[in-house]
Amino acid sequence: MTAPTSTKPAPARNRWSRLVWLVPAAILVLAAVVLAAKGLRELPAVQSFLTAYPGESELPHGAPVGFPAWLGWQHFLNSLLILLIIRSGWQVRTTTRPPAYFTRNNTGPIKTRGKPAKISLHLWFHLSLDALWVLNGAVFYVLLFATGQWMRIVPTNWDVFPHAASAALQYASLNWPVENGWANYNSLQVLAYFTTVFIAAPLAIITGLRMSGAWPKDAGRLNRAYPIELARAIHLPVMFYFTAFIIVHITLVLATGALRNLNHMYAARDDTGWAGFAIFAASLAVMTAAWILAKPIFLRPIASLTGKVTR
Amino acid sequence: MKIVVLVKQVPDTYEDRKLDTAAGLVDRGACEPVLDEINERALEVALRYRDGNKGTEVVLLSMGPEGTASALRKGLSMGADVAVHVLDSALSGADLGRTAAVLAAALRATGFDLVIAGNASTDGGGGVVPAMVAEHLGLPHLTFLDAVEISAGTVAGVRATEHGSLGVHALLPAVISVTERSAEARFPNFKGILKAKKKPLQVLSLAEIGLDPAFAGAGRSAVVTAAERPARTGGTRITDEGTAGEQLADFLASARLI
């Protein structure tokens, strides 16, 4: 009888050991940024720049003040969907053994000439959420441009950049800009929201579409001009952008007058009551429930409505 | 009608399965134990008949160690009515012959009209237990069925042969074994999982199915030595310098493949 031979590789270095220098390095970088920003603000030239560009680009004439109720709904649906999209997308990427597979019934409203491909249940969930998210986004775009709310998040003047630089400097020096989000965002916010709504979201859709089964496989010239590898290389970083945006966004919402900010977005009012917070808390409860219930056992019956769920 | 489905808990084939080389037995801790997939299909065959025929009882029967209950619960959550677990310390390391004798005794104890088994387990891969059980019970046996048709007094099916297919049928009671072409197993749904917790799971010892632990009649085989399969060696790499074709041909010839 032969003794079992060990095939384990030599123990790797402790994976946490890098934290020993990463954490102090991060603190040092943060301190350096804050000190540099504070130092800069002492310079007369910078001070006059801050006076000339306080951080808010003036809105076009006729821009609406405040937020309508539909924006609250749109925002909530969007946050719920993006949460589940990011999670299911990550599952598509990391799962090597899907819990089930889905094959669309090629009958009913969506009928294609080709045979529907068998996809994992995770991918089915991701794509279904995507469809809802795109629908929600389309409604959002229409309402945004129909009501003039677009002026709040689309820069209309080049001075948005010096204003944004000014706001960034104010954040970095820990002397944060005080804007009134009900009337106008600071320019850094405008750029961040514009990037998210009009650059990141379309990028996520067009790259996701390229990777999906809906994209024509035989479109030779189109597919050479826009290879799937390019879409893959962009789709994931876009997700990282969304995640980073969400973290920073929530942090700043809560750190710059949470009750008032939550009232703006969730209760369509400009005061410091608890209504917005209550709706926000309820929306968190819905998101948590959706997160917990998004399991194969509950997804399978839903998926079975439009297709065949198999092993 | 009472249909008994023979099931077995096996190490998940998706992971690296291990043999305890000292004991010569499966290392059950090495990877997740699951209900063998072929048994899920066998159960599906039974459940499909029950779906169309009220008054049918589907019983799961398994012989195995403690943890087997989880595999039985899985089968119950798919829709089986009752589970029977033959558990006895005297059964550790049972070979095919001993397993079949125990299952046959258990079947006599539970009673049945039809016994459905998978054609072979994914761990042992013997593929003879159903035939041995049928022999013990003195019943007709239809093996390796790709399709099954159950009716009131008979069971019929199709089995593939080297040159085509064979339609076979037998009067009940009978024992059949099915292949993975027989049926696509259903998923347990939420209601099924909740209901499974309340369904009866009967644990029987050898004495309770009327067998003396030292029962005679079955010679026992035991593993004498076991060794881990040696790691694969790297293959031969051929770089094409104009003679790759010849090298390939030489390689195939030396391996007696052409």
From TrEMBL, chain A:
Listed InterPro entries: Cyt_b561_bac/Ni-Hgenase, Di-haem_cyt_TM
Keywords of this entry: Cell membrane, Membrane, Transmembrane, Transmembrane helix
Membrane topology: Multi-pass membrane protein
Ranges annotated as spanning the membrane: 67-86, 123-146, 190-209, 230-254, 274-294
Protein's cellular compartments: Cell membrane
Chief place where the protein resides: membrane
Top-level taxon in the UniProt lineage: Bacteria
All copies of domain Cytochrome b561 bacterial/Ni-hydrogenase, residue ranges: 68-260
Keyword Membrane among UniProt keywords: yes
Protein name in the entry: Cytochrome b/b6 domain-containing protein
Organism, scientific name: Arthrobacter hankyongi
TrEMBL record, chain B:
Family annotation (Gene3D superfamilies): HUPs
Cofactor(s) needed for function: FAD
Keyword Transmembrane helix included in the entry's annotation: no
InterPro entries in the cross-refs: ETF_a/b_N (IPR014730), ETF_b (IPR012255), ETF_beta_N (IPR033948), Rossmann-like_a/b/a_fold (IPR014729)
Electron transfer flavoprotein alpha/beta-subunit N-terminal domain mapped to chain residues: 23-213
Keywords assigned: Electron transport, Transport
Entry-linked SMART domains: ETF
Pfam families noted in UniProt: ETF
Subunit structure: Heterodimer of an alpha and a beta subunit.
Family: Belongs to the ETF beta-subunit/FixA family.
Function: The electron transfer flavoprotein serves as a specific electron acceptor for other dehydrogenases. It transfers the electrons to the main respiratory chain via ETF-ubiquinone oxidoreductase (ETF dehydrogenase).
Entry protein name: Electron transfer flavoprotein subunit beta
